[in-house]
Amino acid sequence: MKMPDLKNLPDQIKALDYKNIGSWPLAARVAALILAYVVVLGAGFYFLIQDQRAQLSKLGDAEVTLKSTFETKAAEAANLSTYQKQLDDMNKSFGTMLRQLPGQTEIPSVLQDVSQTAQVDGLKQDLFRPNSEITKDFYAEKPIDLILEGTYHSFGKFVSDVGGLPRIVTLHNIDIRPASDNSGNLTMTLTAKTYRYLEDTQTVAAPKPAKKGAGT
């Protein structure tokens, strides 16, 4: 078989009639077919690979997300006993605080404790006025308006002693001024609040709409 003259190959390519491929020599036609096949195969391979690379990238991102979620869930599962203990401790703490709230029948004794604390601390009670209860979610608030007269030291002791009562009593809106009788004492106006838990059987009845008259 006669090998093509490689030195004259450029001239031979220029001499080819691109409008009439059928007139080309056999070797040129075979080379053109091979070249076309390679181009088509390369283009298909390129676009196929690009699509697969995009899918691979998405799968990689999904893998990272799933791995992060798995690690989070695994950490939560590993710490489940710790969380359970914390919840138990919170429930015990809440129960302890709840037991510090007086029941309905204990409110009068709490009011008496506040009044006696003022007397023991040497304070004169110019006003001791319990107000109506204010109902909250699971407890009721009982405010007491107080006007006490005494020394600054006695006021400090009263505040400290009230904080040490077995039932929760908080002090609000404290205002201290010189007594009006020019005795050298001070007058303290404040609101003390005690709280009671609502019994399980207690419910706050919602107001019912007024019935319309027969003629309306």
How would you briefly describe this protein structure?
By secondary structure, this protein is α+β, with helices and mostly antiparallel strands. It folds into 2 domains: 13-78, no CATH class; 101-197, Ribosomal protein S6/Translation elongation factor EF1B (Alpha-Beta Plaits, 2-Layer Sandwich).
How does this model look, in words?
The protein folds into two domains: 13-78, no CATH class; 101-197, Alpha-Beta Plaits (2-Layer Sandwich). Mean pLDDT is 76; it is low at 5-9 and 203-216. The chain has helices at 9-14, 26-78, 80-99, 107-120, 152-163, and strands at 124-130, 134-135, 139-150, 169-178, 186-197. The chain contains five helices and five strands; from the N terminus they run ααααβββαββ. Strands 1, 2, 3, 4 and 5 form a five-stranded antiparallel β-sheet that branches. It is an alpha+beta fold and 216 residues long.
Largest sheet: 5 strands, antiparallel
Question: Stretches where pLDDT falls below 50 for ≥5 residues?
Answer: 5-9, 203-216
CATH architecture of the largest domain: 2-Layer Sandwich
What is the CA–CA distance across the termini? 118 Å
- Strand coverage percent: 15-25%
Pattern of helices and strands: HHHHEEEHEE
Shape summary: rod-shaped
- pLDDT average, as an integer? 76
CATH homologous superfamily title of the largest domain: Ribosomal protein S6/Translation elongation factor EF1B
What's the CATH class label of the largest domain? Alpha Beta
Q: Count up the domains.
A: 2
Which structural class is indicated by helix and strand composition? alpha+beta
Level of helix content? Answer: 40-55%
Please count the beta strands (DSSP E, at least 2 residues each): 5
Number of helices: 5
Quote the CATH topology of the largest domain. Answer: Alpha-Beta Plaits
Q: What's the gyration radius in Å?
A: 46 Å
